[in-house]
Design a protein that fits this description.
Helices cover about 75% and strands about 0% of the residues. Helix 1 runs parallel beside helix 10, helix 7 packs antiparallel against helix 10 and helix 8 runs parallel beside helix 10. It has ten helices and no strands. It is mostly helical and about 220 residues long.
Amino acid sequence: MSQLAEAVLQDLLIVWSNFDSQLNQVPIIEKLQRKKFRLEDYRTLLLNLRQQVIEGSGWISRAASSMTPPFAEFRSRLLLHAVTEHRDYELLEQDFLSVGGTLEEIQAASKNIGSEAFSAYMYHQASQPNPLPLLGAMFIIEGLGQHKASQWGRAIKEQLQLDADQVKFLLYHGENDPSHMEEFHELLTLNDWLTEATAERTVTIAKVVARLYRLQLEELE
């Protein structure tokens, strides 16, 4: 790994550390940590996450389509990633139904204002030519899967006395996203795309995505 790539990784780890500590102050996460989580909190969380999960494969595909031939390997990796995740929302819907929600309710739910801002930002960045700095977003989002999904899934299962198949979405991502982080490390050094400018942009995008992700958890409806 180049010196610049190592520096970017260190900066991203600092962004993640700040995000992690701020995330713990979000009311619904704080409630989960205090073991005060209720069934309606879980339904609300799933209801508000669905739109972001659906649109995830959309902006990943947009980013792939914005790659020019010199970055064909990035395009291939992104398309595979989108295919892997484009039906994850079905797991989330199944979890919602298993805890008393209805398909009509979750499918009719609109994005909260945090999700609106998050989605708009991601599509905007994905539409830029060769949006390689979006790896900063990947670091935060896949980091959530690797470090938080299983933790939250197990805590919800325990506090609400649910079966594992009622927290499938969170547990699934906890099991699978570590491999996505391995892919992140590969992409960080692929094609020598990092320059001082793209490195700075990658870290900036990570900071914005961390803030917007927190916002969508703060603005649950």
